[in-house]
Amino acid sequence: MTDTQLVRDSDRLLLEATMSRSRRVRNGMASVWMLGSVLVALVPLAVVIFYVVSKGLSVINGDWFTKDLPAITTKPGGGMGPAIVGTLLITAGAAVMAVPLGILGAIYLHEYGGPGRLASIVRTMADVMTGVPSIVMGLFVYSTWTLAFGLNGFGGSLALACLMLPIVIRSTEEMLKLVPDELRQASYALGNRKWRTIVTVVLPSAFGGIVSGVMLAIARAAGETAPLIFTIGAARKLNLDLFNGPMNALSLQIFKNASSSFPAATERAWGAALTLIAIVFILTVLARVVSARVARKHNA
Amino acid sequence: MPPASSVAERAPDPDVPVDASISLASTGGRRGDSIFRLVALAAGLLVLVVLAGIAFATTRQAWPAFSAEGIGFLTSSDWDPNNGKFGALAFIWGTLLSSAIALVIGVPISIGIALYTNEMAPRRLRRPVTYVIDLLAAIPSVVYGLWGVLVLAPNILPVYDSINSAVGDVPGLSWLFGGKASGRSFMTAGLILAIMIIPIVTSLSREVIATVPRSQREAAYGMGATRWEMIRSAVLPWSRGGIVGATMLGLGRAMGETIAVALVIGSNAQITTHLFSPGDSMAGVIANQWGESSGTYSAALIGLGVVLFAVTILVNVIARRVVRHFDERLKVA
Fold first, then answer.
1. Considering the entire predicted model, what is its pTM?
2. A281 at the B interface (CB within 8 A)?
């Protein structure tokens, strides 16, 4: 319910007829500002997607997904296989660590900590942690992991997991808040212990929302570049071992090729951008589909 | 654990609500409860551990640079890695200037969008508009950087040049628009950052604006206010705190943004007010120079990360405080 329903059209006409010119002009300018803001924000979205799709499509073919990175980046040829696999593996590694820990952290905040002092500190710090720049996470993992164990995919996973953790915690806590207390009480009344209530009643009823929050966190991590600069190195050949030897990632390939003055390299950057955006969008859409489907099942 | 436990045995457990203690049978076991509680607590505390770890580990790695430069690390603009000089002032300036440009451009647009979705849009358009603006956040920053450096920078240079030749000599305006224009500049970085902060500032502003009570709006309309007068007298005063907080979160985001800025800011450390000149930012210089650094040079780059960490933490904490402060004042009023 807002103003558009509150003031009926006939009333509005009457109002406008009796209104002074300057009030009408100011109202009109405000409307132009609001509508204009939306249009202005849509322009970069449309333009960026247009460029990425139109420039990226021309380099993507069968070799793109299977071949190693070219040895000479100034000439066309080669593929993006190791970077695509690297992005998927490193992000998956991050999710394996951050998602369970994040959900557990949210369970602590909402089911155990509540309004308590420690829980509010953790909650505030999780909020603050979402604001920590991703490049700082990269430097942190470099200082603690890479210096000791060398460049490898797992370092990248660690850095991305640090980024995802607070996002998963906060989005999951919001979803746990939506679970009605009656469900918990009903479970207690049946004699379930608290932990069983959480695992068998609370989490399943919040499942859809949790999954969509998790997917959005994964999508955000998959597109990150800065934390990977310090941690995963730059492998030209396929490396499937997260714990051993350098890997590569799509975002790193975009960054490295973007400022090149050779068309072959910039074309490769556009192709990598298209591949990365496709991965991120698939995850985002999956998040919507999952949450919509679970919501429908609940209502049925 | 036995399937049934006595009331006396269960009563001291503070986590189980009183209603549950009258149950005759319990499944799951008491030990399971305390283990689960501990695991959840540990996961929650991990946030504090990681934050403390970031502060400690990065400061330790950056120490050689901090101890060599002292306060000069923050106050000198002499960055000459070959001669062991690490003054970061020009990068700090670049971070502040590009973020300021981003706020000046991005915040009015964000508030406009938030007001549009709450106050103006027909109901069936609200969800699509929200969804599309959120999509801006789904595009990875490196893609914005790629587009910025290959498309925006070369195409916007003529615009800079014409502004420069039109007002570059006017006293006052030359302060901002003078100097030689470059496609990769503070301004281009600020524009890209503005695009990147719009989704976060918009979504937070939209949320606070949605909390404005209907009675306030109706009261304003009842007095014969136009939509704009209603917004100015009812919506904006109510949501001012939230919007200030959202702006500060946007600022934190802009200052920490790395890759897009690294690509478009021009990598030319200088302290100037000329918006169209190339510059450099803290995050940008770390990303651009990391590959060629070693020893104290690396330590100095990590030191920039420490400064960035401290500043963004500060901005974020203040932002949350501001929001809470205004919230409480409104409750009292």
1. 0.87
2. yes
